[in-house]
Amino acid sequence: MATRNIKEVAQLARVSVGTVSNVLNRPEIVSPATRERVFEAIKKLGFVRNEVARHLRMGRSRTVGLVVLDVSNPFFVDVAQGAESVADDHDSMVVLCNSAGDAGRERRHLDQLEQQRVMGILITPVEMESPWLEELAARGTPVVLVDSPATGLQCSVAVDDRLGGQIAGAHLIERGHRRIMFVGGPQSIKQVADRHTGIASAVAAADGAVELLTSTAPTLTVAEGRAIGERVAALPADERPTAAFCANDMMALGFLQAMASHGLRVPDDLAIIGYDDIDFAAAAAVPLSSIRQPRELLGRTAIDLLLEEVAEPEQHRHRQVIFQPDLVIRESSAPRRTH
Amino acid sequence: MATRNIKEVAQLARVSVGTVSNVLNRPEIVSPATRERVFEAIKKLGFVRNEVARHLRMGRSRTVGLVVLDVSNPFFVDVAQGAESVADDHDSMVVLCNSAGDAGRERRHLDQLEQQRVMGILITPVEMESPWLEELAARGTPVVLVDSPATGLQCSVAVDDRLGGQIAGAHLIERGHRRIMFVGGPQSIKQVADRHTGIASAVAAADGAVELLTSTAPTLTVAEGRAIGERVAALPADERPTAAFCANDMMALGFLQAMASHGLRVPDDLAIIGYDDIDFAAAAAVPLSSIRQPRELLGRTAIDLLLEEVAEPEQHRHRQVIFQPDLVIRESSAPRRTH
DNA sequence: TCACGTCGTTGAGACGATTCAAAAGAATCT
DNA sequence: AGATTCTTTTGAATCGTCTCAACGACGTGA
Fold it and tell me: Under DSSP, is residue B191 helix (H, G, I), strand (E, B) or coil?
């Protein structure tokens, strides 16, 4: 409660509050002697600037909200770190919020961030269509979609998920697989839908020779991946797919665990390829093949776009940046023996 | 920029600003008719409460800062989730900051949080002794140490790391290992120092029969674990330890990868045990034995203590909560054959 | 009719910093 | 010395909300 304010500092230094403020913000216009006196007073009182009052007066905040689908997915942590590294250079702060794939939680976080009058919001939305976001933007909080393409009404940074799915599919087909399962999540998540479309197009290109199964989980977690894996492992061998393309690496890890616990060999009995190429993918029981996304670059670019918009709101034109994914081949999808 | 304020709402609803504020905060004391009129005005204008002004006026914030050593370590993400779940119930918000083991970054985050006048700070400090934290607390921002025992000047939540180290050591010794390496980090990090002390005491209890090597990295990351692993793998077999106790699971995963890439078999050539029991430990190439900490409970309890202190600053007495770690045995430290 | 409570509403200060026009002081030039 | 310019410092207004004493309207009971 011993929080000092500018007034107390002014009193102790025998200057006006205006001068203290000047020392804090434009020290060069204050005479050295006065400046020194003020600094001493600050030190003696243990004065710490009140950013809240500052923000209220100045009308703009130095923090950016980042709302992600799942904090426990290292993919998003990496995106966040990318964003934070840029924010650091502009002495802003990133506050990380977890929607956990739940529209309600997402909504609450957005409300909170808007009430805090954050500088802007970076978000991987739970649902494709969200009027909230547009209203939010209309009311004056810039929004940048992350890992999700925008319709033109706002900026966005994304990776071509359709292409990623296609690459994964082509890879598995090229490896000789003819019965492939897409281990996915809610189609309402754009990324999932696109990855599905991608692999479907690769399958279609194989001219009916390849069969595509699909399983869907409510969330893209390790646990769900494991659950689906259990079900797949329980199938008779001739009904079982020979390869699985998981919507992300978390699911792939769970799926892999289920294979192991049922004595199925990866990639011999069943090949697996994940998505995101999180660091743990390489350290898995069987190192996971994956579709790599430029995780940190995604975060970096998103906040760059945001800062650009904030800096020049007038002449800013919304942009949609799209990156290309890469195929990373590891043991989990190693060459399949044609039997 | 279309941000409306209470005054505009008041004008449109033809009431005073005081009444609008009442509608927002104590709707029951406002007559239904007026209340309705105000709500309509709010909706029509798209008014969103300015939490910044609110906070300035009320003098206290609804956000809590959580400063962790490494956001990319899922251990801390779990702690954060525990904290957040409690914060949610008290409609507060947790902002996650990453010191990345760097005292400078930690310092900057603390400054920022103090300037924002957060309700309190939960922190896993980089260094044991930190005058900053005490000054911070003295100036009125409550601090709770997380995963790190306090000296009595503040609240803390921790797990008995000494015991954890001892359990890990006893386990390896019991499995027949006589040459054990502690793969650690800076001794300035209390957790690391304690885990080391723990295993050392287990080794001492073995009466000279066991040899304890120690290697130290600047940070507790996968990369550092791998680097140390590379060096260990390069040693001639008779100088190489037969078991490694890693200061956390991240290092253990890196260490494990190094073993694999050098063709050393785990646990036959070298057993590994980690610390934290993060979810990825079980999914590793060789499922990792680990010392489990109650991760979410740690975060939950920390914020409970903080809220307690904030609620009743007067009669609050600082408490130090200590939990017990558990041994989780998996394949990476399976029985060693006596040769 | 008057005094008195009750209920709803009002409006004037805070809260702590920034900003900026204007005043005060110092330095320079005639 | 007096006029002019430049440098410092001042203090009042402002940002958006909350709080609380005071006020008006209304009904009740005497």
Answer: helix
Report the greatest alpha carbon distance in chain A. Answer: 90
Q: Which DSSP string corresponds to A80-112?
A: HHHHHHHHHHTT-EEEEEE-TT-HHHHHHHHHH
Cβ proximity of A121 and A65 under 8 Å: yes
pLDDT tens column, B145-168 = 998 887 778 899 999 999 999 999
Residue B314 in this model has a pLDDT that exceeds 90 = no
Q: What percent of chain B has pLDDT over 70?
A: 98
Q: How far is CA B46 from CA A135, A143, A327, B137, in A?
A: 9, 17, 46, 39
A 111-130 near B (Cβ less than 8 A): 111-112, 114-117
For A146-183, the DSSP string reads: ESS---SSSEEEEE-HHHHHHHHHHHHHHTT--EEEEE
The pLDDT value recorded for residue A336 is 58
* C1’ D25 / CA A336, Å: 88
Residue closest to A303 by CA, chosen among A145, A159, A153, A109: A145
Residues B258 and B224: beta-carbon distance below 8 Å: no
* Closest to B245 (Cα-Cα) out of B236, B235, B237, B255: B255
Helix (H) or strand (E) holding A229: helix A222-234
Separation in Å: C1 C1' and B37 CA: 37
Query: Number of C-alpha atoms within 13 angstroms, CB side, residue A232?
Result: 37
- Cβ–Cβ under 8 Å, residues B273 and B252: yes
- Which residue ranges in chain A fall short of pLDDT 70? 1-2, 336-339
